[in-house]
Structure formats: C-alpha cells, structure tokens
Amino acid sequence: MSDMDDFSRRGMRESRDKGPAYAFYGDDFTGATDTLAHLARAGLRTMLLFAPPDAARLAMLGQLDALGVAGAARTMAPLAQQQELARVGAAFATLGVRVMHYKVCSTFDSAPHTGSIGVAIRTLREHCANELVAVIGGQPNLRRYCVFGQLFAAAGADDDRQAVYRIDRHPTMSRHPVTPMNEADLRVHLQRQGVEHVQSIDWRCYAAGDAALQSEVRHRLESKPDALLFDVLDDAHLQAIGRLLVRRAAVAPLLAVGASSVAQAYASALDERTDSSARNAAAPLTRARGPVFVLAGSLSPLTEVQIGAAHSYLRVELDPQQMTGGAASAYLAERVAAITGPLRDGRHVLAFTTRRAVNATSVTNAADTALPSLAHACATLLRQVLDAVQLRRIGIAGGDTSSFAVRALDAWGLSYLAPLSAGVTACRLHADRTELDGMEIMLKGGQMGDAELFEQLVDGYAVGQNIERQG
C-alpha cells in the first residue's frame, strides 16, 4: 500500500467520523433517487433530503456516510440556479464533505439558459479546495457511454436490443423541446455553458494502471483547466476513476459532476477497502397491499410504451391545455374526483398527460419539458389526490413532474427501499404528516425503466437481469 493510499484511507475515515464524506445535489428528483440507491446498496447509510438539513434534522438522522439534496436545478434560469446551489454548496462545506457531487442527467441535457452545468460548476467549486473538477461522462448500466469525449446513449425499452446513438442523433434527446442535445462532444457542450477550458482523460489511460492515471491527471492539472472530462465505457473504468477520486478527495474536498456513475465510482473504491459484506442485497419490492396511483407527466416515447402496457390500471387522461388554462381549477377538481373515486374502491389508477393537445407550437408541453405551469398543475393534482385518499404506494413519471410534485408534499426526505429496474428505484417517503410518512414512492425519468414498469410497481419485482445491471 502506498503512502497516498494510507493517507487517503485515513482522510476518508476521519471525514466519516465527523460527518458524511459524500454529498450530492440532484438536479431533478428522479436522478437523485438513482444516486441514493447506488450509495445505499453499497452499504453506505444515506438519506435524500428536499432541503439542506439544519442542526436538528442532522441530529435526528444520526451518523450518515452520504447525504443528498434533491432539487430542480435542471429547470432553473442561471440566477435562480446560482442562488440555489450557493446555499447547498455552503451547507455541504459546513458538513465537511470530501466529495461534492453535482448529479446531472446521464444524457447531460442542459443549456446556458436552463439548468446550466456551467453555472453549477462555477458556483460549487467555490466550496471545494481541490484543483480537480472531475466530469464523469458515462453510466454503463444505463447504456450511457463517453469515448474520446463524445457522449452516446441508448434509446427505447431497457433490453439488449436497444440501439445506441451519438447523443446529437438520439431520437429523443436531440429533439428535447427545452434543452436539445445538439452537440455530442461534452467538452464543446460545457464550453457553451461557460466552462471554457475542459481537457479529456480518454479511456486508454485506465489500462496503464492507477499510478499512470494519477500522473496523467497531475500533468493535465498543470495547465489549470476548468474541468477534466473522464471517458467511461465499462465498470472497470468507473473503478479506476473511483480510486482516483477517493485519493484526491482525501487531500482536499473536490467537485465531481456527472450522473449516478459518480456514486458508483466512489462506492466501488470504498468497497475495495472495506468488508464487502456491508453491501446491501437487492431485496425485491413486494406486491402492493392496496391501490396504486401513478401520475405520468412525461411525454417520452418510452413512457408512452409503459402507459400502454399498464393493463392493471384504470387510465385517466389529463389535458395539458385544460390543466393550465383559465378554468384549470374546475378541470383539476373534476380530474381529482375521477381519480380518487376508483382508488377508494381499491382500483389502481394511472393518470397521464395526453399527447393530442401538444403540437410543435404549443406552449403547453408535458411537465417533462421543463415548463413550470404544467409541472405545478401536476403537483397540485397529486397533492389533492393524497389529501382525499390515503395511499401506501405511488409512482411519478417525468423528471420535472417528479421534482415539482414531491416538493408540493409536506415531506422532508426519502430513503432507499428497493430497486425496480435500471435507473428506477422505489423509495420510502419521510414526512411529519402521519398519513404520508412511510409511503412507498417510485420516481422515474422519461427515458428510464422497462416496458412493464408500472405493472412491476403493482406486482412487485424479484431480483433479475435489469436490477443486476443497476448495481
């Protein structure tokens, strides 16, 4: 064991003795729950909160290995995003975290005017003394890959027949109505958001071993880049990156940017140093013991497939124009009644925003397009449904739908419960209201999950191939 290895081990252990060594901010709620799942399944005691914790909350939670804050930065304009992240960064720094993770979507969809990763880097690095800002460019278990700085992503249902596209040719992400990914080179993508000097560590560096990778990183840092972008093609690459992050974070707190692959890399490095028996087995989600409600605000093609396969549910359409129009209150009241009546009778209900009201010039796209008016309307609908009928399991589809809807609830956090499929996790809601505390909740992005995901939420899901890919 090298002196650096010994120093990094002591540094990370001392940090854990004082507070969580790892803290992450999720730029939407769905991705944040995926990061929560990876850390929890690695045996790290982790909580996901909806705001930075105060002293009383921290005392109640007890010793944590990792802490997350779920937010909605991917929908924010630069000033609001900067204000949000300055508050979060200061809170994380006060806790003494060693790795500060800004969790982005695995497709890196963002823009200078909305959810800017550049704003996040400039804001959060003020709270990290380490000269390394690491951008992790792929997440293989979700079939997201970065090679020579170019991002690739699969599209379609989560199976082995998925086609993989360069992100600027991806059938969904290249056409995102707010943050289309029209540039595959993540260095250029970040430069457009103000991260001007980005260097790339390509995948060939990992094969030469840890010492060579450390040397290459030191060499690159001599030119003082704003960030280093790390290629990722497989789990072995993440393990090499994780060892590097842990070593460097022991010297000074560092900022890492990327999807849940950052957590995967970090956890894999710790697992090499600890008893692997601490890792949590992927316990299956049991069958629902009462009616299940799903709110689908995403218009992604995959979510449409999942809606079509949801045979156990009564389906209730939600018209985006009426939900946000002048008579929205009356329309929402009528839709809430159409949902809560069957739920009281013990039926599963799926409410979904319909495509027919959406066209190329419409200003009322689904909540997953980051338009706040519809996201707020979906949040109001969920709150009214839960005020009217007590449920033990719900699901929300759509990144922005999830962020706004969960924030509208009188709750303060989530803990890991069980996996459903790659990128989709069932969590336990924590709230001061008795009727909400302990509710099981699934949050999923538009591009995530198996075709039968909503059926799995009802039936439960035994550990299988897709869950294996999540770990």
TrEMBL record:
UniProt keyword annotation of Kinase present: yes
Keywords of this entry: ATP-binding, Carbohydrate metabolism, Kinase, Nucleotide-binding, Transferase
Enzyme class: transferase
GO molecular function term, any single one: ATP binding
Origin superkingdom: Bacteria
Pfam family of the protein (one): NBD_C
Sequence ranges assigned to domain Four-carbon acid sugar kinase N-terminal in this UniProt record: 23-265
InterPro entries: 4-carb_acid_sugar_kinase_N (IPR010737), 4-carb_acid_sugar_kinase_N_sf (IPR037051), NBD_C (IPR031475), NBD_C_sf (IPR042213)
Domain Four-carbon acid sugar kinase nucleotide binding: 294-454
Known EC number: 2.7.1.-
Record family assignment: Belongs to the four-carbon acid sugar kinase family.
Descriptive protein name: 3-oxo-isoapionate kinase
Species whose genome carries this gene: Paraburkholderia fynbosensis
